[in-house]
Amino acid sequence: MTALSAPSIDQRLPAMADLIHQAIPGSEVRLFGSRARGQAGPDSDIDLLITAGRVPFRGVNPEARLP
């Protein structure tokens, strides 16, 4: 019997981008680094650049902001 394998990270990237777009409407998600170049190894991470206009920070404590 063959064990089921989890989808690869590369197969999951579109779903990750969709989740980000849902959480941050109007955002853009860009992949860069070794995965974007097709040079990713088994231990490579995912490098994403997420850009957005104004993002409301609901529930952020103003005293917790960095100086």
Residue fraction in strands: 5-15%
- Give the tally of β-strands: 2
In the predicted model, the low-confidence regions spanning at least 5 consecutive residues are none
Helix-strand topology string = HEHE
Number of helices: 2
If you compute it from the alpha carbons, what radius of gyration comes out, rounded to the nearest whole angstrom?
17 Å
Share of helical residues: 25-40%
Distance between the termini: 58 Å
Q: Structural class, please?
A: alpha+beta
**Widest sheet: strand ordering:** 1-2
Q: Rough shape?
A: elongated
* Largest sheet geometry: 2 strands, antiparallel
Give the rounded overall mean pLDDT.
81
What does this protein look like?
This protein is of the alpha+beta class and about 70 residues long. The protein has 2 helices and 2 strands. It has helices spanning about 10-25, 35, and strands at about 30, 45-50. A two-stranded antiparallel ribbon has the order 1-2. The longest helix has 15 residues, at about 10-25. The termini are far apart.
What topology does this entry show?
Layout lengths: L8 H15 L4 E5 L1 H4 L9 E5 L16
Antiparallel strand pairs: 1-2
What brief labels describe this structure?
alpha+beta; elongated
Q: What would a concise description of this structure say?
A:
With about 70 residues, the protein is of the alpha+beta class.
